[in-house]
Amino acid sequence: MLGKKLVTAQKRGETRALCLGLGMVACSMMMYFFIGITIVPFYTKSVWTTETVCKVLKANIKDKVLCPNSDGSEDEDIFPYPCLQVWVNLTASGQEVMLYQTEDTLERNSKCSYVPDKLENSKEVKAQIETIASNFKKHQTFPCYYDPGGTQTNVILSRLYPPKGLLFAFLWPTLMFTGGCLIIVLVKISQYVSVLSAWQ
User: Fold this and answer.
1) What is the spatial distance between Cα 100 and Cα 117, in angstroms, rounded to a whole number?
2) What would the mean pLDDT of 116-125 be, rounded to a whole number?
3) PANTHER family annotated for this entry (predicted)?
4) What 3-state class would DSSP assign to 55?
5) Based on C-alpha coordinates, what's the Rg of the chain?
6) pLDDT (tens digit, 9 = 90+) per residue, 143-171?
7) 24 SS3 class
8) What is the mean pLDDT of residues 124-131?
9) Distance CA 50, CA 45 (A)
10) Residue 143 forms beta bridges with which residues?
């Protein structure tokens, strides 16, 4: 009687462990799919892949411009802000090009190097942009990214999804997938050993 209870408890434990392993594998597959349709397209679409050194030539703040809203957004998302334009000397080619913060900055407003997040206080926006401009004037030389194919003549300060960020995004689903597979393998080995022991 006691032996049957132990066998039943063992089978229940194996079933739960197997369900846990299969659940972890399924969740990791969903995470892979989500990363594949969100982050990977932005990473592959970016042409600014080569790092070089940029030297600031001028950093000017123009008159206020309107932040263009994206398709389908509300009119209230449009707000005026000072337009910061940073021109740099590209060490790789010696050209004078315009610097943008990220790939997204160029899409949001190609006239400005920096597009701030919407802030209710216009003084805070102005102070933020003036601080960024002064930092560029202090630090004349810094790393930047350019398009080696020549499709885009401008440069960006930082990539939205660098290779390290992409690897980090795939790290957690990979660990979950590995852990789930390991649990399934251990359960199968335990079942095989139990059947082998019973047969002997």
Assistant:
1) 15
2) 76
3) CALCIUM-ACTIVATED POTASSIUM CHANNEL SUBUNIT BETA, CALCIUM-ACTIVATED POTASSIUM CHANNEL SUBUNIT BETA-1
4) strand
5) 27
6) 999 988 878 889 999 988 888 888 888 99
7) helix
8) 86
9) 14
10) 53
Tokens of 25: 């594998």
CB 14 within 8 A of CB 191: yes
State how far the Cα of 53 lies from the Cα of 55, in Å rounded to an integer: 7
CB atoms within 10 A of CB 30: 11
Catalogue the E-assigned strands of 4-157.
50-66, 80-90, 96-100, 141-146, 155-156
Full-model pTM: 0.69
Is the CA virtual torsion 24, 27, 32, 35 positive or negative? Answer: negative
Residue 122's identity, in one-letter code, is S
Cβ neighbours of residue 39 under 8 Å, at least 6 residues apart? 161, 166, 169
Q: What are phi and psi of 130, to 5 degrees?
A: -65, -35
Distance CA 55, CA 48 (A): 17
| Torsion-angle region of 142 (φ positive above 0: left; ψ -120 to 50: alpha; else: beta) | beta
